[in-house]
Structure formats: C-alpha cells, structure tokens
Amino acid sequence: MSNSPMATSFAQRMEESQAYWRTEAGRSLWETQRACLGPVVEGRKGRHSLEMSMGPALMTMSAIPHVIHWSPNRAMAVSDSSLVCPPDQFALPDRCLDAVVIHHWLEHLPEAHYTLQEATRVLSDTGVLVLFGFNPIGLNGLTQRWRKQKAQFPWCGQWRTVNRLRDWLAFVDFEVERVDYCCFRGPMSTTCGERWEALGRRHNLPLGESYMIQAQRRQRHAPVERLKFGLRAPASTSSLGATRSGASARYSSGQSRLKKDSESE
Q1: pTM of the complete model
Q2: Each residue of 135-173: pLDDT tens digit?
Q3: 243 vs 206, 233, 239, 248, 259, CA distance in Å?
Q4: Which of 35, 112, 236, 255 has its CA 20 to 30 A from that of 11?
Q5: What does DSSP say about strands 83-84 and 66-71: parallel, antiparallel, or unpaired?
C-alpha cells in the first residue's frame, strides 16, 4: 500500500491540503469543526476510535483513550500505531471501534462509497460515525460552480450533498441522527465571524461552509428475554371450566360425580 501509485496519489493530495489548513480561512474552518465535534466525542465511552482526517487531528478532546489515525503511507504516519492501508480495506476486525471520524476524505477518493462501507463495518452496534464535508449549497459551494481554478484544495474535491450521503448510509443500514452546519462567513470574509456563526448555529441554517453528519447503525441487537412458563397461582375451577371443552370438560364432570359418590358412601 505504501508504495502503490494510489497511495502516492492520496499522500500527495493530503500534503497539498496542508497549505489550506495553514491559511486564515483553513484555521477558522478547522476550529469551528472541532467545536462541533467536541460535544459528540468528549463524553463518549469506549476503547478504540479511528480518525481519517484530511487536516490536523480533531479527536484530541475525545474521552476514548485509543485513537487510531489513518495514513496513506508510512511517511505521513503520525505514530507507530497509525493505520496504513487502502482506504477501502481497513486492516481491522468487524465492529471493533466505538467512533469513526472521516474528515473531507470522501470528497477526494475515487470510490468513496467503499470507504464508507468499511467505516460502517468496523463500527460497533453502539458506535457513532461522523462525516465532515464541504457544503455544495453554501456560499463557497455556489462559488465553486463558476470558479475556474479547481486544481487546489478544497476546490478540487467532489462536494456531495447531505442527501446523497444519507442515501449511501441507508444502503449500509445506517441512519443519520443529526446534521450540523458550521463555519458561516460574512461577505468577503476569510474567517467565520462570531455573529454569523452564532446566528447560523442557533437555527442550524443549511448555508454553512461545512456540515457534520452523525450516523449510527439502524439494526441493533435487541436484548433477549426468556419466556417463563407455568402459573404463579392455582387456577380456579371456574376458569378451567370456562376455558376447557370437549374431553377435558367431560373429565372434570366425571371427577365431580366420583367425589359425590364417595361422600354418600
């Protein structure tokens, strides 16, 4: 994987994106995204999580102790425990993670739906999947349509709508629990203004530059309850007579006659 042409292409795309995250606009977007992610992972319990981030690490505030960072090659791995593998073939067992965060990679992978399938495969029944993407119906999304220079990040990616990802998630039996829009910039502004951000976040307007999707598995294992057979208290003869018929009724009447004959003797 580390030396494959595909891995080299992913590493180059990731390296090119770092220049954007160092700009004022990129830092402002990353800070608002991290603020959106905080309430989701700060108090979440679990042992392992996976972060597949195009920019700086976002899971630094997570309560989950072991965070695995995905990397396209060994040269870009942040630690010895980084996951270096194809994005559509995670070297992890089924349902072993409590959280998976995919940060803008779905916009730059040629077969992004396979990566989404892998993310849902490694998530536990109670795990949460968090997807970050650029909003194509936001201000920058509308600008992208007539922008001529699309070779640089973030304009080079394929921006998908929330409804498109909702359909992809439904195909793998996941459902969207919440969508948060973030980074509301004013006209001709490179930073997410506090006034615009407060207004947009309060009403969750679908005009933010980025969105965050929270999804969980639709089908979960239900607790199994054993059935208990038997009567807690003796049933009365009236209830037995009301529910029995045929041979059972004749047997009850026969028993009554035998009891009367024995008493007369």
Answers
A1: 0.78
A2: 988 766 556 555 555 678 888 888 999 999 999 999 999
A3: 62, 17, 6, 10, 22
A4: 35
A5: parallel
